[in-house]
């Protein structure tokens, strides 16, 4: 009888050890997975939003960009800003479905070419792609 008890006890203990090691392994995998996801999220968003304060400064100073969804130069300009472009004061001149039509806001401002940047206080307009450094020099907004 005592031999049977010892064997059952050994089986029970070995079963508990394997369950314990499996749960430890699962916890370790979960922690490593969360760390990898967290690091990827941090680095992705850090790079994508690095020009937010600069774009916000342009917006606050009244700088505007007129463009069209179908314009490749406008797409190039947007890519320079990355995800921070959403903070730029952008006026869409294109009309969906008609590459020859122009929005009323752009007609009223007599915008002819894209991208067109408008700089206050005098409302000077320049029709071209700008680097961030050029925009910084022209507006006084700090590029970080």
Which helices and strands appear, and what pairs or packs with what?
Layout (H helix, E strand, L loop, with lengths): L1 H47 L3 H9 L3 E4 L4 H10 L7 E4 L1 E2 L2 E5 L1 H5 L7 E4 L4 E4 L4 H8 L5
Parallel strand pairs: 1-2
Antiparallel strand pairs: 1-5, 3-4, 5-6
Task: Please describe what this structure looks like.
This protein has 144 residues and is of the alpha+beta class. The protein folds into 2 domains: 1-48; 52-139, Glutaredoxin (3-Layer(aba) Sandwich), CATH 3.40.30.10. It has helices spanning 2-48, 52-60, 72-81, 104-108, 132-139, and strands at residues 64-67, 89-92, 94-95, 98-102, 116-119, 124-127. It has a 4-stranded mixed β-sheet. Strands 3-4 form a two-stranded antiparallel sheet. It starts with a helix and ends in a 5-residue tail after the last helix. 15% of the residues are buried.
